[in-house]
Structure formats: structure tokens, C-alpha cells
């Protein structure tokens, strides 16, 4: 049985991709199965936390006892997170949020008219949910501990350290390559202000339990 290291804590987690509409039948998205975030939600719940899981479009069952909020776009995810972050103690951002969305979504399906002319698209930047929460009042006051994820294809340690600083989070977790999209196992690099420690390749379920233990250990003595 998992030790109940998160009793009394409200853990907010984002998971999966976001989907940004181009028209009613098309859109752009990121590759993410949501498995790591769902595994963390399950592990946090098993550790006694109240868990809110804000999920982009994924085909995964809701872990037992977890409150799930389904969203589609980055803007939807942002709004759901901002609401729940008001009473959360821990925020873990695993979602692969689309960095940009089409400036406007067409109301009706864009037709291919046979002329060979292709649609031109303008993008606007989506909100950086993690950075906004981590720079917000509750995180800055030490009431909300924020954890970010990084999926890098090279220089993981340097990129993870830079991302940790840029996002303003105490703990940044790097996915150790090769890309783990949809896989059931992974390996993680935990980067904080003191060190980088590796959680060697294991099932996402096992890694989630280890990560929850690492977060619980840091939260118990943490203030910003
Ligand atoms: O900047 P990058 O997308 O690489 O950062 C990844 C981390 O930031 C992840 O924790 C991801 O969930 C979070 N993120 C976010 N909102 C965005 C982009 C990334 O919360 N718009």
C-alpha cells in the first residue's frame, strides 16, 4: 500500500495534448498520450491527496477517486487550471500544450475548391499556463508548489535547468529520451535548485509513485 504522504493536499495536474481548432473538422495538436499525467494523478490519489486532473483530448480512463475536468484547447485548459489553482497546494503540469493556435477558427469547414490555392493561416500565442501559475501570488507566497515537465530532444540537463528558471518552478522534470509518446515506461530527470537526480527507466506507474514521494518530501519543508 502506498504511504499516505499527501493527505490534506489538493493536487492539480494537467495532462494530455491540447487541440486548437482550424475549422469544425480540423485542428492542430501535440503528441501526448496523457499516460504520465494520469499515472501521477493515480499515484497522488493513492497517496491520500484530493486530485483534480485537467485533461486534454485523450483516450484514458479516469483514475479512481480523481476529479477529472475535460478540456480541448489551451485556452480551455488555462481557464480550468486558473479556477482550481486557487485552492490547490501542488500543481503538476504534464500537458503538452500547443504553443500557438490559429488566430481565428473558421465557422464552417474550409472547402478544397480544386484550384490548388492553399489556405493561409495566422497563429497567435497561447498562454503559458505553468509560467502564469508559478509566477502567481499563491506560488510566490509558498502556498502552491509548482512542478513542470520538459520533453527535449537534446541537452536535457541544460535545457531543463533553463526551463526551470524561465518557468519559475522549484522542480522541473525532464523526460529522458528517446521520445516516450504512448509508451508505458519512461525515465525521468528531476532538477531542483540543488541537484539533478535520475529516476531510471521504469513503468510510468512506478515513476509516478517515486515522483509523488519526491514532491511530498519537498512540499513538507517548502516555502518560496
Ligand atoms: O515551454 P515548454 O512547452 O517546453 O514547457 C513545458 C512545461 O510547461 C510543461 O510542464 C507544460 O505542461 C507547461 N506548459 C504550459 N502551458 C504552455 C506551454 C507549456 O503549462 N502554454
Question: What's a quick, concise take on this entry?
Answer:
Catalyzes two steps in the biosynthesis of coenzyme A. In the first step cysteine is conjugated to 4'-phosphopantothenate to form 4-phosphopantothenoylcysteine, in the latter compound is decarboxylated to form 4'-phosphopantotheine. By secondary structure, this protein is α/β, with parallel strands linked by helices.
Walkthrough of the structure:
With about 220 residues, this protein is α/β, with parallel strands linked by helices. It has six helices and twelve strands. It has helices at about 35-45, 75-85, 130-135, 135-140, 155-165, 205-220, and strands at about 10-15, 20-25, 25-30, 50-55, 65-70, 90-95, 100, 125, 145-150, 170-175, 185-190, 195-205. The strands form three sheets. It has an eight-stranded mixed beta sheet, with helices on both faces. The protein has a two-stranded antiparallel ribbon with strand order 2-3. Helix 1 (about 35-45) packs across helix 6. About 40% of the residues are buried. The model has no long low-confidence stretch (mean pLDDT about 95). The structure holds cytidine-5'-monophosphate (C5P). The site of cytidine-5'-monophosphate has 15 residues, from helix 3 and strand 9.
